[in-house]
Each structure stands twice: as C-alpha cells, then as structure tokens.
Amino acid sequence: MMTSILASIRKTALYAAFFGACLSIPAASSAQLPDIAVVGLVGSGVDSGDADNNPYLLQLGAAAELTFLGYVVGVRGTRSLGSSADCATSSCTVVKDLRTFGADLGFDWEFALLHVSPRLGVGRLTERDGDIAAIYLEPGAVADIEILLLTLGAELRYRVAIKEPDANGLLAYLRVGLRF
Fold it and tell me: What's the N-to-C CA distance of the chain in angstroms?
C-alpha cells in the first residue's frame, strides 16, 4: 500500500518536472522573427490619488505591439469609467471618463507558450470634460500565454499622472487578442 502511494507521488513529481522543463525551454524557432500582437483590454483599478471616487472602476482599451529580438514597442489607448463620489458637496473631487493614449516600451522573455514582459508606458491622459490633462508614466508587467495565434494574459500597472495626483492608480487588465 505504502509503495503504491510512493510510486504515485514519484510519478506525479516526474510529470511536474517534465512540464516545468518544457515551459522553461525558450522557443528557438520564433526568437529571430518579429511578433505583432493586437489585444483588447478589460480591467479595473484602485485610485491612489486625491479623488473622492474611483476613476478606474471599469476600463476598456486596445493595444498593438511589435516584439523583435526581445524588445517590445507598442501603442495603447484606454478609457476608464469612474464610480460615483461618496460625498455630495461642491468641494468633492470627482474624476470620471479618463482617456489615455500612449506608447509602451519593454522587454519580452519567451518560455515556450509563456511571454513575460516588464513594461513602461508613457502617454497623455485626459478627462472628457477637460478638467484633467496630464502626461503619465505607467510602469508594470505583462504575462501572456500564446496558443497558435491566440494570446491570453494579464497586466498589472501603476499609473502616475504628472502634476495630476487625482488620476494616480493601481491598474489590472485582462488581455485577449491575436499574435502573428
């Protein structure tokens, strides 16, 4: 009885080691070819600025990226729909309907199906009614799984709006798209 349990544990450990080794082997065939990815973004976030509401309640967007020799260059745009404010006075700072457009720079490590990439986004952030307009920096990370042409993944970023602390926030996105 004990030997069959040990054999089962050993067999499971061997399968796990094999699976881990397969993920850690870089895909050599695509290492020299450029990749183009087009993804849709759906996300949410947490306001870390001075706003009385959460301007990052729901986020929608898209990104296009070119990866060559491990370097990533891309463009992205997002729209954030904010929550209602908790206060009803005229002194409330309510940030809603933020829009961003910018560039993404980073480096991509490819391990078989998995792509992991630190990123830095730089761009312009505006509020629809014009109260906020700022340059932003957005350090973060992206992890994607590539299956044939389909790419599925997630990103985590921290947005710093220069001279507009009402728009700072921690952001998380789900990514779905195509990689050629």
Answer: 51
Q: Comparing C-alpha atoms, which of 172, 177, 180 is closest to residue 46?
A: 172
Q: Which amino acid is at 116?
A: V
Give the whole-angstrom CA distance, residue 169 versus residue 15: 41
Asked if 104 and 76 touch (Cβ cutoff 8 Å), the reply is yes
Q: Which residues neighbour 82 within 8 Å (Cβ) at sequence distance 6 or greater?
A: 51, 53, 54, 55, 56, 57, 94, 95, 96, 97, 98
Distance CA 85, CA 53 (A): 4
**The dihedral of CA 65, 68, 69, 74: what is its sign?**
negative
User: How confident is the model over 1-59, as pLDDT tens digits?
Assistant: 556 655 555 665 555 555 554 444 444 444 578 999 999 999 999 988 777 778 888 99
The per-residue pLDDT of the chain, averaged, comes to 84
